[in-house]
Amino acid sequence: MAKKVKFYAVWAGREKGVFSSWDDCKKQVDGFEGAQYKSFESKTEAENALKRNYYAVVNPKPTPGQASIKQPSPTIAAWAVDAAWNTKSGDMEYQGVDLQTKTLVFRKGPFFDGTNNIGEFLAIVHALALLKKHNSEVPIFSDSKTAISWVKAKKANTKLDPTGRNAELFELIKRAEDWLKDNTYKNKILKWETKWWGENPADFGRK
């Protein structure tokens, strides 16, 4: 079966527009601070989305009947984090976005032979450490229940096997676990509700 073609809308990057491959999109956004992009199933969807505000596309308002959201609105002062994992190469990277200023606050990787859950875990801890350094108690949104549970347990319960390429990743996991054991924080770690708010703003746009 032929691989389904994705189209990528780029609002903020080296060049704005619609691109028909991830490689072309990546040239515009990789390493570009504050990059804004999202994947779509068709070119028409991507072109129509590009005519709208980026955050209006990735954070649509709840539909009727979904108004009673118990968690704070994602429009409040907060950070969102996410990870991307290449199933073929095993490479993983993660990043964090400030929801209020609409800027990329950190991006790390790629790291060899990782997993998505590890990336999500490291992203949350990375955000916690940065926010603590700046005496900020804003909440952190993640769409990974697994990573959130690992952070609460102060332990990455991964079954990933060490390889000759992921020693750095295991060192980062150890440092993250040690940080959680040695530090306290007041930041709430909240689940990003994709079905209500759309794609996590920290998403890499490669789905």
From TrEMBL:
Major place of residence: cytoplasm
Query: What's the top EC group for this one?
Result: hydrolase
Q: Where does Mg(2+) 2 bind?
A: E120, D143
Q: Can you cite an annotated GO cellular component?
A: cytoplasm
Q: Does the keyword Translocase apply?
A: no
State its Enzyme Commission number(s): 3.1.26.4
- Keywords for this protein: Cytoplasm, Endonuclease, Hydrolase, Magnesium, Manganese, Metal-binding, Nuclease
Q: How is the cofactor bound?
A: Binds 2 metal ions per subunit. Manganese or magnesium.
Look up the domain of life of the source. Bacteria
* All residue ranges annotated as the RNase H type-1 domain in the record: 73-207
Q: Which Gene3D superfamilies match?
A: Ribonuclease H-like superfamily/Ribonuclease H, Ribonuclease H1, N-terminal domain
Q: Which InterPro entries match?
A: Ribosomal_bL9/RNase_H1_N, RNase_H1_N, RNase_H1_N_sf, RNase_H_bac, RNaseH-like_sf, RNaseH_domain, RNaseH_sf
The residues that the entry says bind Mg(2+) 1 are: D82, D203
* A single MF term (Gene Ontology): RNA-DNA hybrid ribonuclease activity
Q: Which reaction does it catalyse?
A: Endonucleolytic cleavage to 5'-phosphomonoester
Localization? Cytoplasm
**Keyword Nucleotide-binding on entry:** no
Q: Which cofactors does it use?
A: Mg(2+); Mn(2+)
Q: Tell me its family.
A: Belongs to the RNase H family.
Q: What does this protein do?
A: Endonuclease that specifically degrades the RNA of RNA-DNA hybrids.
Q: What protein name applies here?
A: Ribonuclease H
Where does this protein come from, organism-wise?
Lacihabitans soyangensis
